[in-house]
Amino acid sequence: MRQLSSLLQGLARSMAGKERKEDDPQGTVLRSSGTLRGEGSETLAAVWSRRGEKGTNQDCSLVWEGFGCQDDTIFCGIFDGHGQWGHYVSKAVRDSLPPSLLRHWQEAVALASLIDGEKKLGDCQFDLWRQSYLAAAAAVDEELRRSRRLDAVNSGSTALSIVKKGDTMVIANVGDSRAVLGTTSDDGSIAAVQLTVDFKPNLPQEKARIVQCKGRVHCHDDEPGVHRVWLPDREAPGLAMSRAFGDYCVKDYGVISAPEVTQRRITSRDQFVILATDGVWDVVSNEEAVQIVADTPEREKAVKRLVQCAVRAWRRKRRGYAVDDCSAICLFLHPPPS
């Protein structure tokens, strides 16, 4: 039972570590634009966010190196709020989801150790992460619903995160932010591999669920191609995604907070992962984003350059529209070549 004992000790250390992070926020946790070098994981995470022209920046992010007090584990998450109080909702999800995920994962591992024995744990790691993500998302959404401090009836947030442990990544997505992998092709060029689905209301399986729950999905004439979720009897709230935290006015009409959880084994060809909000992807293609990062000599500056390119693309491609908030995380998967 050594693994079970070490997991429980790690849980205790991680809970105690929350106070240490308050004293030294630049230690293992990054909550703003900047970089964080992973010691045990030998990774570099760079974060950059740029407020748009619509008011308060509703994007926020979190990088947690040593997630769960495991030296080879890093958590990266990006959260995009919407609605009047979206900036508060996104921060609430950012602050609640990672520790909730950690608690559920360690409880799941402890239970699996007792039932199946430690030797079988390696075979069910992904199932445990998936169960933990689903349970954590449900708990956070219910916590938001019950909150007396936040009004999330007509406001909400997306949540895109990855947990990298050793050579494995677990990716979980709620909403329309996107994760894209930059990997080396056979000819030596860099290729883009999309790791997540943008959960827009017009996706067949998403629309079917919403319609079955009596919600409506359609575009307005002044926004061709922009599908939104509407209540059965009125033109509100016009939510441009099918999954989100909060948005309780449409939770009975098919909008859910359950993440899609997937896994990818990292190879020597995989160079970096970009996590970005829709403000970036609305104007920058997967291939363009990967090439921008790959062509930036200094890793620390790559994600800032990506966001700057997105802002310029908004002004060039979307004239007459207010520039959206643009935020991104770039997690480099291997140390730079010596």
UniProtKB/TrEMBL annotation:
Record domain PPM-type phosphatase: where: 44-333
Single GO BP term: negative regulation of growth
SMART domains, A to Z: PP2Cc
SUPFAM superfamilies hit by this protein: PP2C-like (SSF81606)
GO MF entries: metal ion binding; protein serine/threonine phosphatase activity
Annotated EC: 3.1.3.16
Stretches the record annotates as Disordered: 14-35
Keyword terms, alphabetized: Hydrolase, Magnesium, Manganese, Metal-binding, Protein phosphatase
Cofactor: Mn(2+); Mg(2+)
Root EC class: hydrolase
Catalytic activity: O-phospho-L-threonyl-[protein] + H2O = L-threonyl-[protein] + phosphate; O-phospho-L-seryl-[protein] + H2O = L-seryl-[protein] + phosphate
Family named by the database record: Belongs to the PP2C family.
Protein name per its UniProtKB record: protein-serine/threonine phosphatase
Species of provenance: Triticum urartu
